[in-house]
């Protein structure tokens, strides 16, 4: 990943009506693009320009450089998030991710309820993450603002953006309805690819 806005993995109208083209125009075309542009400006003519976004995140975090960390992390988080959604997604998880969800949460319904509650109740802006710890166990992480499992030495598997700009156009202030719609478009194939075996 570089300091450029990546292409979406589907058309902007592919997730309609759950996430509309207008939301993508703002969320992807304005918010995500702004993080990329800000990050490009911050690293221009510095030794950071040749680092990966992941390396910039770690550097910004370690040095408590809020502007650098926030813009790099939000660029990375959003680039990851777009792949967590798919017009062919939804249903119950299959493959290794399905096995690990049963192992670590009891069953899919318990996992879904716990993840949904985490996403709905996260105060203010942030992200609900499914991640793997260093031993390979799945866990749900509520993370404020731009924070990401990368700085906690955990492997991101899936995420849901619960910043208000992710859902306000389509759902107004009804975050629970947005969270509910996530389960119809969640990309389990992407989750399987992210697992560390």
Topology:
Elements: H1 21-43, H2 53-62, H3 66-83, H4 96-105, H5 108-121, E1 126-132, E2 138-144, E3 155-161, H6 168-171, H7 175-185, H8 188-194
Antiparallel strand pairs: 1-2, 1-3
Function: Destroys radicals which are normally produced within the cells and which are toxic to biological systems.
Protein name: Superoxide dismutase
Organism: Winogradskyella marina
Tell me what the structure shows.
This protein is mostly helical and 197 residues long. It has helices at residues 21-43, 53-62, 66-83, 96-105, 108-121, 168-171, 175-185, 188-194, and strands at residues 126-132, 138-144, 155-161. The chain has a 3-stranded antiparallel sheet with strand order 2-1-3, with helices on both faces. α2 (53-62) packs antiparallel against α3 (66-83). It is globular and about 50 Å long. It starts with 20 loop residues before the first helix and ends with a helix.
């Amino acid at each position: 990943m570089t300091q450029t806005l990546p292409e979406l993995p589907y058309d902007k109208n592919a997730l309609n009506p759950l996430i509309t083209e207008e939301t993508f125009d703002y969320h992807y075309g304005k918010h995500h693009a702004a993080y990329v542009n800000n990050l490009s400006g911050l690293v221009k003519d510095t030794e950071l320009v040749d680092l990966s976004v992941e390396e910039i995140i770690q550097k910004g975090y370690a040095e408590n450089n809020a502007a650098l960390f926030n813009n790099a992390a939000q660029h990375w988080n959003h680039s990851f998030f777009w792949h967590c959604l798919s017009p062919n997604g939804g249903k119950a998880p299959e493959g290794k991710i399905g096995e690990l969800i049963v192992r670590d949460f009891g069953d899919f319904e318990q996992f879904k309820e716990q993840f949904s509650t985490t996403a709905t109740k996260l105060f203010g802006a942030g992200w609900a993450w499914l991640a793997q710890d260093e031993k390979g166990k799945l866990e749900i992480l509520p993370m404020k603002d731009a924070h990401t499992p990368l700085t906690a030495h955990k492997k991101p598997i899936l995420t849901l953006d619960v910043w208000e700009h992710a859902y306000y156009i389509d759902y107004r202030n009804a975050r629970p309805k947005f969270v509910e719609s996530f389960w119809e478009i969640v990309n389990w194939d992407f989750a399987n690819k992210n697992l560390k075996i």
